[in-house]
Amino acid sequence: MKVDVLLGLQWGDEGKGKIVDFLAPQYDVVARFQGGPNAGHTLSFDGIKHVLHQIPSGIFRNDIKNIIGNGVVLDAVIFSKEVEALYKYNLKPRENLYISKKAQLILPTHRLLDAAWEQSKGTEKIGSTLKGIGPAYQDKVARIGLRVGDILKENFRGKYDFLVAKHEAILRSLKFDYDLKELNREYFEAIDFLKTFNLINGEYFIKNELEAGRKIIAEGAQGSLLDIDFGSYPFVTSSNTTAAGAATGLGIAPSTIGDVFGIFKAYCTRVGSGPFPTELLNETGEKIREKGHEYGATTGRPRRCGWLDLPALKYAIMINGVTRLFMMKADVLTCLDKIYVCEKYKLEDGTTTEELPFELNDIRIEPVLREFKSWKNLDFTSNVYNDLPAELRIYIDYLENQLRVPIEIISMGPDRKNTILRNKMLAPQI
Ligand code: GDP
Ligand code: IMO
Ligand code: MG
Description:
With 430 residues, the protein is an alpha/beta fold. 31% of the residues lie in helices and 22% in strands. The longest helix has 18 residues, at 156-173. Magnesium ion is lined by residues 12-13, 39-41, 297.
């Protein structure tokens, strides 16, 4: 069996949670492979709207196993709150949630360091979610991080104190005020709670599932343009959000990866700092933000909005080897009469390019736009592709031509129901 990978092709918040939840009935296992509580994945069904941060989006189906992979950085305090919030839905995460012992732990001081470093950067700040992601991955790479499996060891407290002392020295040097006492108390309570879950050797667990013929979907967090290597560095997150991250973040061979599902919005959004060539700093951008409820699921911050950016999208498709595309939030563009797509970039010297320049952060880029008529009068009672307005089908045909990958799901609303399939193979067998 192969592992299918689902990931965002833009700057995050493409609607990954919705689609993983939608596709989940076809899979036996859903596995998160990177990121941590910086993610906010929204699921909507049966009148419920739920945001998941670290727990995979298959958790609402009791017959599906959910894995938090070794590539994730886990905050035990946020984890315990997330689990508590699931109990009211009669879910039993102790039975169908598994956590890799090799996942790194986010400590309270990682969160403080995130805030302290952001503060010290002033106008150069990344606009981090302040969840301690960067500092936790930094310690992983520095080979001083603590892992989930460490909490079972007797010397965990000693290792914790040793690392916290290092963090405190940095916090003092940055003149950052904090009080660790209460943070430590809630942290160790959460660690005790975490110990009661299935802590696993994820790589063997997945191998056994595959050998037993089970289907696995790997759920990405953030988006390809926030990737630590390929995003608009340094305005990125600290993990590989791209398909290769699924191999290292779960312990599977690259040859095990099957389909790569790439998700994008019919327009673009971005939260936090960094270049955004098609950004709309005007009333049109505000219209999209209001109609699309473009406010962060984790931080509540307003998302920056702009036109669909083809050079950036083609780049993300290339890096990930995307095999199928899913287009989200097409319903939102009904708020406009005309919409635009960026086909290429005009650079300061007057030349144009369809490639993402290395100097993206430093130069002025003018998007070269193509105009489309937007669509109106959506019929939400039909999930048949041919019932979509002609203008929307023209837009989709154009994009498929440009991107050379089929667009197989068109999402027309937050709910599971508002999902139009063009490939019956993707139909959930409920
Ligand atoms: P994720 O991080 O990729 O899982 O995405 P988020 O949950 O952060 O943000 C996507 C937002 O758009 C959520 O509020 C979803 O409920 C909502 N959403 C998802 N698909 C659609 C869609 O097709 N149309 C509309 N209007 N909203 C959608
Ligand atoms: P999901 O999984 C959108 C952004 C932050 C910031 C940058 C670095 O919901 O799509 P970090 O806290 O990771 O150090 O922040 O990355 N960012 C996201 N933007 N969706 C996300 O996750 C994000 N996770 C991080 O806003 O610009
Ligand atoms: Mg999100």
